[in-house]
Design a protein that fits this description.
Strand order of the largest sheet of chain A: 8-11-14-17-20-25-28-31-34-37-39
Helix content of chain A: 10-25%
Oligomer: homotrimer
Mean pLDDT of chain A: 95
Radius of gyration of chain A: 28 Å
Strand content of chain A: 25-35%
Structural class of chain A: alpha/beta
Distance between the termini of chain A: 91 Å
CATH class of the largest domain in chain A: Mainly Beta
CATH architecture of the largest domain in chain A: 3 Solenoid
CATH topology of the largest domain in chain A: UDP N-Acetylglucosamine Acyltransferase, domain 1
Largest interface: A-B, 72 and 71 residues
CATH superfamily of the largest domain in chain A: Hexapeptide repeat proteins
Number of domains of chain A: 3
């Protein structure tokens, strides 16, 4: 694959990474602006390759690396080389891993030809930016807007009146239901469903009467939604996902959830309705959160953890039954239900021992 | 949005709600038949708005509400106003929340133009009622039947020989596989898969030989299936979902499951094969039920609860490890596996204490 | 349905089953080669039916069965009939259940007409074998290859450069993303997503920077992937699923997972990235496995079990909180967090009792 990969001048790549980082990545190039085309591990890198150091375990390999450009932090530079800088080009950077991420986005950028494929279905009344791409068998319904350079891939559906910003990718068979609002630079992996009806029913004589769900899903900028993840539209108000939030595959968000900015959730998380998750929180895979809970910014939930309540402070919470081998699980699980009686026995025994102790004391006197 | 919303005469709306409820909602209008077009919270409601009371906490707000029509129960009417009825129109109703649900269905009804879109794919041998709607890029395979006023949205697939009743909605990219049978007034949210193969294999020399799954999925009337929910076809007999049952998103039902009538399941529930869930049962989110279990009617399963067996009586069962902060989880989890030995120690200690007590008694004598 | 089913001569069916089993199923026909067309339970079987015995509970029913062909093991034959063989044809087979599975594959085989439907979208540069079937509204992108007799059903998407072997079925709305590699005789149930991006981000000033996922998903022969299951492409290296592995619905595999051969996973399993699962392992429904874990061949994971580590030996591990009725759960769960203090109390009490015992001994002396 490397053969077809574009070749960058190091200084040009650095300039474009700087732009992507909005100038926040601190970088300083030492040595000439070599040609680079890919990242490789330090020990495997050669001419045209970049290698970055984030883990001290690779320091020796990095010292000996034949990469054309090595990327490391100021402190690692002096620790590795002292005053004797090597003959190679060096990028000193305060976050080599972020440099790797930004630069990879440039190295692996694929440009799709703009335009609406003749076999796409763009309904009358939809507005597609001339620089956007709508592939064959993709659907854009009436009233929908597709922003500049956004790609709607084959089989994806953008519903009636949905608004999609710039530079988004909507992968095959993803569905953005009617009225969904999406910012810019968002990615929708295949099969995700944004804006299905929330789960709202009124109980009536042992039956369940559907309550129309008329809120929307509103998604900020730079959000990624995983494959087959589902986000329900709000009942009356909107379901909201904030800027920069990344949701892995097969996550479920209920109606009226409010997910903050720069939240990450691993796969298979389920969050019931009307719950909020504060900015910069992290949720482990397969965690489950009840409805109507407010999780403060900066909180963490461990994997496979059920959350049924929260205090008002950020916290790291975890809880799952430990896996055990063979019969041990059966034995331990059987004990769990006896815990309250064990505790009572322990208390009673404790009291009994103190009675005996008193008896002994009185006998001694 | 309110501007485009249809306006109803209160008495006309009440008559149509009565019809939707099959005459089971008890309603009595006091005062003139005002014009209404939406529901609002009591304190925000004004002319043309309806407000309903289900929660005593809003009684004062309701008393002061400027809604054109207020909906409450007989007992709340007298508690709030005694004999001094307000100047507003009042709907006395035995279930104001159900009224809200039914009336909202009328307020938010959207009619789609009937007919098969020229870019739909309706295979030869399919039968589509002339009042049904099949949108562009929707698929209806040979032998399938689509009932009156049913809507098959863009990207949805109705498989070979599938039968769909009247007034159903099959949202985008939902799949009803070959032979699926669906009643009337059912809703299939986007991306759900009805009638994928059950998971059946014969072990053979360390390998797994597929057993063709030749049963169907049979779904009753008034069923709703959530986004990306999957219901497998039966192995030989059918997988069955009863009338009025509501399934949230990302639920999995295995082959030969038999789900009763008016059951509700929250999102992310998984039920293995050949299990039955009785009428009017409620299953919490992310609950998991093993195969070959019969859960009696009227049972309840808590969220994130694993069910591996059941008795023969309806029950409410729950079980998940409590989430803890920081290191507390590690400590508690480590103890769980020692529970059997703790219990032994407790028993041994108890015995030892009684021995000492006997010693003391004999010393005293 | 039986009416349209093909009729087989027993000896012909046996020969074809033998072929399917690659000659590994040991079979011996006693009696004439009767006509057979379906399997039935022993007590319900009649002329033209086959009945097989795997469960001793059905021995008496089998003895009395009117099936045209009965299938059982050598030892069951002698146990049931001794030397007095019945008048019926008998297939003695070392694995009657595997015979049932293989034979059912032949009985329920459906042949689809080969060819690309005029309303399919096969992009220029895709290569479709002339014996393959690409249905209406199915998508095969540029550079993709579809092998002999493989079926791409309506709404399925085979991405750019994906390679699919022979005799596969890709059901409606399944997505095989760009570059996916698939062996032969694989089945993709509806809505599954193979090759969505892995979940990889670099932390940068409280935000998350996407790391392009440029590995692929590589799937062996005879693999089945369940409805709405998702398998992420690798970050740099590939995500791999070995020959003969069967994955149920709504499973999630993270980037760089390496699933061995002939593994079975029940529905709703989630496996985080860079984890390996050894050959012939079995994973119960809704089990969750953390990333970067190596599970040795032949291991087992119980249902609803969270795995956060493993040793280096195959094992059977299980762990989930037992479900309890009513208030019992609340009581037991509250105790779990007190387990460490209970253990301390128990230790302290134990020590105290020994002190008392010493006191008593010294008093006695």
């Amino acid at each position: 694959m490397a053969d077809n990969r574009p070749v960058f001048q190091a200084d040009e790549l650095i300039a474009r990474v700087s732009e992507l980082s909005k100038g926040r990545l601190v970088m300083r190039l030492i040595g000439p602006s070599v040609e680079v085309s890919r990242f490789m591990p330090p020990q495997a890198a050669g001419e045209g390759d970049m290698a970055f150091l984030t883990n001290a375990a690779y320091a020796e390999a990095m010292k000996a690396s034949k990469a054309s450009l090595i990327i490391l932090r100021e402190q690692d530079l002096s620790a590795l080389f002292g005053d004797a800088l090597p003959e190679r080009s060096i990028l000193v950077c305060d976050n080599p891993y972020a440099f790797f991420a930004f630069a990879s986005q440039l190295l692996f950028r694929t440009e799709l030809p703009p335009g609406v494929h003749p076999r796409a279905f763009v309904e009358e009344g939809a507005v597609v930016d001339p620089t956007a791409t709508v592939e064959a068998l993709a659907v854009v319904r009436a009233g929908a807007k597709i922003g500049a350079r956004t790609v709607v891939k084959a089989g994806a559906v953008v519903g009636e009146g949905a608004q999609v910003g710039e530079d988004c990718i909507i992968y095959s068979n993803a569905v953005l239901e009617r009225g969904t609002v999406v910012g810019s630079r968002c990615i929708f992996q295949p099969g995700c469903v944004i804006g299905g009806d929330g789960f709202g029913f009124a109980p009536f004589k042992g039956e369940w009467v559907k309550i129309p769900q008329v809120g929307r899903v509103v998604i900020g900028d730079d959000v990624e939604i995983g494959a087959n993840t589902t986000i329900d539209r709000g009942a009356l108000e909107d379901t909201v996902v904030g800027d920069g939030t990344k949701l892995d595959n097969q996550i479920q968000l209920g109606h009226n959830d409010r997910i903050g900015r720069h939240v990450v959730m691993a796969a298979c998380v389920g969050i019931a309705g009307s719950t909020s998750v504060g900015d910069h929180s992290m949720v482990g895979g397969a965690a489950m959160v009840n409805g109507h809970i407010d999780i403060p910014a900066g909180s963490g939930i461990g994997p496979a953890t059920a959350i049924t309540g929260w205090g008002d402070k950020p916290a790291q919470k975890t809880g799952f039954f430990p896996a055990m081998e063979g019969r041990d699980f059966q034995l331990a699980a059987a004990m769990v239900s006896r815990l309250p009686s064990m505790r009572k026995e322990l208390k009673a025994l404790s009291k009994r021992v103190e009675e005996l102790a008193a008896l002994i004391r009185s006998a001694e006197e």
